[in-house]
Design a protein that fits this description.
The protein is about 35% helix and about 20% strand. The chain has 9 helices and 13 strands. Helix 4 runs parallel beside helix 5, helix 5 packs antiparallel against helix 9 and helix 7 crosses helix 9. The longest helix is centred in the last third of the chain and has 22 residues. The radius of gyration is 20 Å and the shape is globular.
Amino acid sequence: MSAVRIGVVGAGNMGADHVNTVHRHVSGAVVTMVADLEVERAAGVTAAVPGARATGDPFALIGDREVDAVVIASHDATHADLTVAAVRAGKPVLCEKPLAPTAAECVRVVREERVAGRRLISLGFMRRFDPGYRELKDTIASGACGAPLLSHCVSRGVSSAPGATDELSITGSAVHEFDTVPWLLGSPVEEVSWHAARSTGTATGLRDPQLMLLRTADGALTTVEVFLNAGYGYDIRCEVVGERGTLALAHPARVVADSAGARSFGHPADWRPRFADAYRLELQAWVDAIVSGDPSELATAQDGLVASAVAEAVITSMKDGGRRVAVQVPEV
């Protein structure tokens, strides 16, 4: 089979990074088209990829005869409609998280794929391909530290994106943990609650940082910290406490004082250096599955629906004083 011809929707940081990764690091694939509402931005991305074309119409890209498969890396609000369009065109689609901002929209997407009669949708929960997270999952499964009792997840960034809201902190950032935790522990999230620290004094208007408590079906508890305006760098941490020991992605044996304005401790400014391997491995696995026709290890549309249902339960808790809320995954 000739190289899979990929069209990328969205030419912001995420989309541009996907184009670069496919072009330079993924075998068996070539980027042929990039779409962005700001066509000049799409043209700037395609300039580095010989033969690739730019367009301002994402639906034209999906229907183009020189596009075999689609990567969606546009604004979250566009994900559902674009994914449905790709499914109706019969094209494999890798949609960045979230599948959609609401569970109801996710249901619509999942139903569309079922009507198509075959799996076409993969979801970009790339932590499933991060070498550190995979090693952590394998070690948990081995029973080396006994059954998990607690886990602690931390997600911190330098500054929030323009227009960020408390809800977007959950649907756009914490949603990674809503997929990662049940994937790591092998147990779905059943109950959640939301909490906030005092104001950090930022001008964003966000309640930031946020803390979420998840209870999985196995009885384990997980804390999820999301701090979009931590200032000092992009910092991802995960620790699992088992019956006989603990496992962590990083476990320094000294005090490290990270602070805004001082990034000499190795924290990057954004997600790209930390998860470069994960995105590369994810994209390669997606392309390999398209070529072979075999099922891939990427998250499914149903996984996206479940993560969005957890996010909605957290938002309900946030709006109702932090009470415990049961997760309700809609029937499809």
